[in-house]
Amino acid sequence: MTIWLKARNSAKPVSEAAPKRSILSLRSTAVPSLAPRHARSRHKPRPRRGSQAAAARDGWTSPAARGRWRQDSTDTGAMTERALARIAAFDIRADGTAAPVTEPWPAPAPAPGFAWRWLHCDRTDAGFIRWAAAHLPPPARAALIEAQTRPRCEPHGEGLILTLRGINRNDGAEEEDMVALRLWVAPGLVVSARLRPTHAHRDLLAGMEGGRAPVSPGLWLIGLCDQLMRGIEAVTAARDDAVDALEEMLLDERPDGDGAGLTGITRLARSVIRLRRHVAPQREALAALAAAGTPALSPDERAGLREIVNRATRAVEELDALRDRLASLRGHVDSRQAARIGRNGFVLSVVAAVFLPLGLLTGLMGVNLQGIPGQAHPVGFWYFTGGLVLLGAGLWLVFRWLRWF
Fold first, then answer.
1. What is the 3-state secondary structure (H, E, C) of 67-81?
2. Which of 78, 229, 308, 313 is the least buried, fewest Cβ under 10 Å from its Cβ?
3. For 11-55, how does the pLDDT look when each residue is reduced to its tens digit (9 = 90+)?
4. Is-contact 273 323, C-beta < 8 A?
5. pLDDT score of 306 more than 90
6. What are phi and psi of 283, to 5 degrees?
7. Burial class of residue 162 in the structure, from the number of CB atoms within 10 Å of its CB (0-12 exposed, 13-18 middle, 19+ buried)
8. Is 263 exposed, middle or buried (0-12, 13-18, 19+ CB in 10 A)?
């Protein structure tokens, strides 16, 4: 009993025997895991959807780069940790020479010594979306990344929001499925975005690489619109040649021309309608661009844009003329087919009119009754047949005299 009391008195309180520890530290050391294994695996953090694909597309595939991608994905403020994936990026001097932009995260202004900057990016790139959110006005950012677009021009402050369409010359695509190009044009800056490649940039890129870059955003815009209109004019001229060939085939009265002609008319009409659907609003957008009072365009540049508006108007008029010509050809084919059907029906009616009395007489002479004329005559059948032939010939002569055929 004495020994037990001594041991009890010598025991220290818990607060003296061990230092105080927080609940979190106790949970992490004394209780490593209170949840079942399947519950722990369910709560593991997952990477964001599309992050690996976007990282591989932009070249972030090394272990260090993947770590930077994860840091950038979780911290939206650390935009300088990732380079902007760009299709083309140039700084242009006042003498027309250009230099590629080497900044990982370019500023919305040209480098010192340069007149203006052009950035061309993929509108679906996550880095471009964040860059636009950081450096561009909200209306411009929304216009650059939106999926459904139509040609338009809207001034905003000192800049312009512009959406244009170009002929689709990508492999396996239809030319009428025109490619959209979204633009933000401001003094000293041009930002363009697209989803599908546009061939209108090839000459512009070749000029910049060869030291023949436009000296201002307005001249660059004139060059772009000129390339877009060249493609539209070429396709319109090709459709005009196809309609000419179709007219020659249908007007030659070929026996098999109507079927092939009707198919060609339908195909060409569909192509012309789809082209005009994009070219007509693009003419309005270019007219608004030429009339826009923005510092990004000089008076001489607006005059150049008015010439492009004239070309766009002429293209729309040619498409309207093609549509009317195709409608006229379709009416011609329909009327010719209706005339052929009517003529065939008339011939059948004449044949029926000739054989109707012959059939009536044949039916009367074929009844099995007593008293039929010529029944007992040895050549009565041949007399009756000759009479039918004479009656048919007489009816044919009467219809011929009446000019029924």
1. HHHHHHHHCCCCHHH
2. 78
3. 444 333 344 443 333 333 333 343 444 444 344 444 444 433 433
4. yes
5. yes
6. -60, -45
7. buried
8. exposed
Within a domain: 129: yes
Could you give the CA distance from residue 179 to residue 167 in angstroms, rounded to a whole number?
6
Give me the percent of the chain exceeding a pLDDT of 70. 77
Q: Provide the Cα torsion 16, 21, 27, 31; round to 10°.
A: -30
User: Has residue 265 been placed in a domain?
Assistant: yes
Domain of residue 107 covers 80-336
3-state secondary structure of 343: helix
3-state SS assignment for residue 100: strand
> Residue 343: inside a domain, yes or no?
no
Q: Phi and psi of 296, rounded to 5°?
A: -70, -15
35 is a domain residue = no
What are the residues facing 98 on neighbouring strands? 92
Q: What is the pLDDT of residue 257?
A: 58
| Cβ-based burial of 74 (10 A; exposed 0-12, middle 13-18, buried ≥19) | exposed
Question: Six-digit token pair at 336?
Answer: 């010719």
Evaluate the CA torsion angle 19, 25, 27, 31 in order and state its sign. negative
CB of 265 within 8 A of CB of 336? no
Contacts of 56 by beta carbon, 8 Å cutoff, 6+ apart: none
Measured N-to-C along each axis, helices 299-365 and 257-291 cross at an angle, to the nearest 10 degrees, of 160
Which residue(s) pair with 181 in the sheet?
Answer: 164
Dihedral angle sign, alpha carbons of residues 32, 36, 39, 41: positive
pLDDT confidence tier of residue 261, bands split at 50, 70 and 90: confident
Closest to 156 in 3D by CA, of 137, 169, 170, 182: 137
Give the separation between CA 14 and CA 20, rounded to whole angstroms: 9
Answering whether pTM is above 0.85, one says no
Tell me how far apart the alpha carbons of residues 175 and 172 are, in angstroms, rounded to a whole number: 10
Question: Cβ(213)–Cβ(92) under 8 Å?
Answer: yes
Q: How far is the C-alpha of 98 from the C-alpha of 208, rounded, in Å?
A: 6
Domain containing 176 — which CATH number? 3.30.460.20
| Residue count of the chain | 405
